[in-house]
Write a structure and sequence with these properties.
- Helices cover about 25% and strands about 35% of the residues.
- It is of the alpha+beta class and about 240 residues long.
- A hairpin with a 3-residue loop joins β4 and β5.
- The structure holds biotinyl-5-AMP.
- The site of biotinyl-5-AMP (BT5) has 28 residues, from α1, β3, β6 and β7.
C-alpha cells in the first residue's frame, strides 16, 4: 500500500521554523505529504506565541497536509500519537498529556503545533512536530531545563534522527488514514490508550476561564471531558492543562 506521508522529504540546515518554511513552499515545492525537516530552528514556535527551543540534536519537522478548518483540532491531537509510538520503540515509555504534549515522567519531550492556512485556493494543514531526541538538556534555556527531557538524557542512547523520523512517519501515516476515513471512535480509543491525563485531577485554562475536575475521556472530536466536583460532565475543546 502506498503511503500518503511522506511524499518527499525536504531537508534544511537551519530555518526559523519548519512550519514557516512549509507555508512558504505550499502548492509549489511542498505538496500534500511533503515533509520539511531541519537540523535546528532559530525561531521555533509553540502554541499561543510560545517558543519551542530547537538546538541541534533534536528532530524538527513539518508535515504538509490538506484538509478543512474543521480537521485542524483533531489533527492537532492525533499528531502526538506517532511521536509517543516512536519514543516507545526507542524504549522511552512516553505518554500524551492532552491535548498534544508528549511527556515522560511529567517532563516534556515533544510537542505539536498544527496550523491551518489558505493558499492557492486550497486549505492546508501544516503539522509541526518537535522531539527532543539527542538534545543535551544543558543546551536548553534554564527555564525549561527542569521541565524538559530528551531521549538521550533518559536512555543514554543517541538515535539516528533519520530512523526516528522514518518510524514516526510510518505511524503518522496510519493515524492520518484513520482520520481521513472517519474512524474517529477508534482514534479516540487509541489516543486514550496513550494518554496519561485520563483519571487525573486537572485544571484547564481556556479562553473562557479555568475549569477543574477529573479527566474522564476524550471524545471522538478530540475534546477532553472532565467530571467536576458537583459530578457534572464538562467538555473542553481547547486549553492549556495542568495536573493538580
Ligand atoms: C508545543 O507548544 O509544544 C508545540 C511545539 C511544536 C514544535 C515544532 S518543531 C517543528 C515545528 N516548527 C515550529 O516552529 N514548531 C513546530 P506549547 O504546548 O505551547 O509548549 C511550549 C512550551 O514548551 C514553552 O513555553 C516551554 O515551556 C516548553 N518548551 C520549549 N521548548 C522546549 C523543548 N525543546 N523541550 C521541552 N519543552 C520545551
Amino acid at each position: 500500500m502506498d503511503t500518503l506521508v511522506p511524499r518527499e522529504i525536504l531537508r534544511f540546515d537551519a530555518v526559523e521554523s519548519t512550519n514557516d518554511t512549509a507555508k512558504e513552499l505550499l502548492g509549489e515545492r511542498a505538496q500534500e505529504g511533503t515533509v520539511i525537516v531541519a537540523e535546528r530552528q532559530v525561531a521555533g514556535r509553540g502554541r499561543h506565541g510560545r517558543a519551542w527551543f530547537s538546538p541541534p540534536g533534536g528532530l524538527y519537522c513539518s508535515i504538509v497536509l490538506k484538509g478543512d478548518e474543521k480537521s485542524v483540532p483533531l489533527l492537532n491531537l492525533v499528531c502526538g500519537m506517532p511521536v509517543v509510538k516512536a519514543l516507545r520503540h526507542w524504549s522511552v515509555l512516553a505518554t500524551l498529556k492532552w491535548p498534544n504534549d508528549v511527556v515522560f515522567r511529567n517532563r516534556k519531550i515533544g510537542g505539536v503545533l498544527c496550523e491551518g492556512v489558505y493558499r492557492h485556493d486550497a486549505f492546508w494543514v501544516v503539522a509541526g512536530i518537535g522531539v527532543n531526541t539527542n538534545v543535551p538538556l544543558d543546551r536548553l534555556p534554564e527555564e525549561v531545563r527542569v521541565t524538559a527531557t530528551s531521549l538521550k538524557a533518559e536512555t543514554g542512547i543517541e538515535v539516528s534522527n533519520d530512523e526516528f523520523l522514518e518510524y514516526m512517519l510510518r505511524e503518522f501515516d496510519k493515524v492520518y488514514r484513520a482520520t481521513r476515513s472517519g474512524a474517529r471512535n477508534v482514534l479516540a480509543r487509541d489516543y486514550m490508550a496513550l494518554c496519561s491525563t485520563i483519571r487525573q485531577k486537572v485544571e484547564v485554562a481556556t479562553a473562557k476561564g479555568k475549569v477543574r475536575g477529573t479527566a474522564v475521556e476524550v471524545t471522538p472530536a478530540g475534546a477532553l471531558v472532565l467530571m467536576d466536583e458537583a459530578g457534572t460532565r464538562v467538555e473542553v475543546a481547547e486549553g492549556t492543562l495542568s495536573l493538580l
